[in-house]
């Protein structure tokens, strides 16, 4: 049995994801499709719209065979660590390939860019360093250095596009791991990330879809943009928890914790750097909404995403000290499987490179405990404390 | 001008307090009555029913001449440190006497008991130590040792009574300070501390009165038990903040912070000792109400009051490390004054032993910043962030 892997957030699952999943299976020729999925907090430094169980359900209903949790420490990290976490897990699961959506849609430019940068890494890093010194954000600096290196030459990856950047990091992670896993890419189609839902189209952005849910759009209308199973799973999640995950919803707790920690305390949380703790503290003192708060704190240098990652760690209490203890993912947390997924695990048992964990009670190392902790923090943000699924349920099964 | 001092919480101010204030002035023959009052958190380890501004207003309306804030570090401490903080401030203010309510109502038994224990301190401390080892709470151990020492002898203070105990600590604090301040006591009258309001009586317990406010009792009915100015100040406070301070109200934030800190984090907060952090954490995981939570955590050894003091420090983020930096109160924070109080301060200016602080902006040491921080934490517990009074208002003035 051949497996291909994808690294996803499904926040929430929509027709664009369905297209990606279907194409990944086709293009790779794999029998089994494995998704490594972020848990309760996401790479953009946000609480997930719906919890990992609801999102696993959507994934399984749409034909994913195995859903494995990307540990919190990687799911909420900058692109290179996010990629390292995801690729390490897919490699441990014995995937022959991984498949990412990209604006470019062809793999050669990525490999060419990778080779160019690998050959000239010293020069590249020096250029990034220089650019950062001018006060631009790290992604901007990276981009500037890359553009200067590649020049006007055709045939390289366009690393100004967000999905291309992520894809590039996946390839980089696979090479660093010395993994035999092969990269595949699929052209992304449809809505741009931030487009609102446009009536009549079948693909909408996750942002637009989240907005539609907050506005209580009907199941029929939403079903144009996402599988009906996804709509139903989300509606049920909202019924159970009273709402969806968002910083707006979590802000009272976040604000309290920022004010309680004070600048001296804030500094110790992961990703908080360079004196931004005072700005975070002062903004929390006066701003009554998350949106006003983040607008006060973000800047050219500290992008919204970067600040939100800091906030995520402040919110969950995840420190630099803890972060530094993590070198590589240490387990495979199984959130859900199809019959084919179960079959694959049974057959591959001996080739799987990390312990496969079906129940939280078995997660006894600090990285795993952090995932359980993240669920507890996530549920409290929603005003709930239901941890039943986390502790006592087996992985979801779609037979 | 002669001044006498009282140490109070006014949670909230009622006719029993009015009686105490009037008698203190009469019995001491003082021209000016000074109250050192706890701020936003109280000695029983609870958020105050109404904030310190509303309580200052009640005190001034009832004839108190000066209201000085007892710093958080002392207001939330065990009896001996609470007493030390209060007496130090009254001494610094040049009071000739201080006046406490007691079950016994005469000062001689207190002085006799003080002398006995001073003479036999070594033996007393050894007996307390032995009693603690049997697993009883510290107050119980103290009481046991004291009863054994005093025996059946008449004429000593009955240190089983809560107000007698506090009075004893005041005397002890004054002696340790080598202060010339003289102790006076007044017999407490009326309701026992926990009695509910009984119709037709003019004195009710603070507990009963708080309950009546939660039940939205009418102003007319409440005015039987407390000055009408107090009723109105409280009603206005509730209108402004939407509620009153209580652990029930603050529990969602407390619970989140306990779960976020986890046992390792909880241990660092002031008063948290001897492995209780696991019990606190486990109870927070499952208990949805504060009352169920505290019942799980308190025990014969760790009384409700002691646990609540730990919770107060966890809630505000006050650590052992901070606590250890405080030796003695470093300022007099003026919350309110009458014309006579202002007059007294002007005349006594040169004799006042600590800097007199009228505005929070002038509080630049760590103890003072902690009081401002406590206000911020208190307001967040009520779902508010109004800090205007704390920062920009002068002390209240009742001319």
Automatic annotation (TrEMBL), chains A, B:
Pfam families reported for this sequence: HIGH_NTase1
Domain of life: Bacteria
InterPro entries: Rossmann-like_a/b/a_fold, tRNA(Met)_cyd_acetate_ligase
Enzyme Commission no: 6.3.4.-
UniProt function note: Catalyzes the formation of N(4)-acetylcytidine (ac(4)C) at the wobble position of elongator tRNA(Met), using acetate and ATP as substrates. First activates an acetate ion to form acetyladenylate (Ac-AMP) and then transfers the acetyl group to tRNA to form ac(4)C34.
PANTHER family, sorted: TRNA(MET) CYTIDINE ACETATE LIGASE
Protein name as annotated: tRNA(Met) cytidine acetate ligase
Protein source organism: Planomicrobium soli
């Amino acid at each position: 049995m051949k497996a291909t892997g994808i690294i996803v957030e499904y926040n929430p699952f929509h027709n664009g994801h369905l297209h990606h999943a279907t194409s990944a299976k086709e293009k790779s020729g794999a029998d089994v499709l494995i998704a490594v999925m972020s848990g309760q907090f996401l790479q953009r430094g946000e609480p997930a719209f719906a919890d990992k169980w609801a999102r696993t359900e959507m994934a399984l209903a749409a034909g994913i065979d195995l859903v494995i949790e990307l540990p919190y420490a990687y799911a909420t990290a900058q692109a290179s660590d996010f990629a390292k976490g995801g690729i390490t897990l897919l490699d441990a699961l014995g995937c022959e390939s991984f498949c990412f959506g990209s604006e470019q849609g062809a793999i050669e430019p990525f490999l060419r860019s990778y080779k160019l940068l690998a050959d000239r890494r010293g020069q590249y890093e020096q250029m990034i360093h220089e650019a950062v010194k001018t006060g631009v954000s790290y992604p901007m600096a990276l981009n500037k250095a890359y553009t200067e290196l590649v020049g006007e030459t055709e045939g390289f990856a366009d690393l100004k596009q967000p999905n291309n950047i992520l894809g590039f990091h996946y390839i980089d992670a696979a090479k660093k791991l010395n993994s035999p896993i092969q990269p595949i890419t699929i052209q992304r189609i449809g809505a741009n990330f931030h487009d609102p839902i446009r009536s009549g189209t079948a693909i909408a952005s996750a942002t637009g879809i989240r907005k539609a849910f907050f506005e209580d759009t009907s199941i029929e209308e939403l079903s144009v943009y996402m599988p009906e199973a996804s709509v139903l799973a989300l509606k049920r999640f909202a019924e159970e928890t009273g709402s969806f995950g968002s910083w707006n919803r979590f802000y009272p707790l976040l604000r309290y914790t920022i004010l309680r920690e004070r600048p001296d305390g804030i500094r110790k949380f992961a990703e908080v750097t360079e004196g931004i703790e005072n700005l975070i503290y002062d903004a929390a003192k006066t701003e009554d909404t998350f949106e006003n708060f983040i607008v006060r704190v973000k800047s050219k240098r500290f992008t919204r995403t970067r600040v939100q990652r800091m906030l995520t760690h402040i919110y969950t209490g995840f420190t630099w000290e803890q972060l530094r203890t993590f070198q590589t993912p240490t387990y495979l947390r199984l959130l859900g499987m199809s019959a084919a997924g179960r079959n694959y695990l049974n057959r591959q048992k001996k080739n799987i490179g990390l312990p496969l964990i079906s129940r939280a009670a078995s997660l006894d190392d600090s990285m795993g405990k952090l995932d359980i902790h993240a669920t507890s923090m996530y549920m409290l943000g929603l005003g709930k404390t239901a941890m039943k699924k986390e502790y006592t349920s087996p992985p979801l099964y779609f037979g």
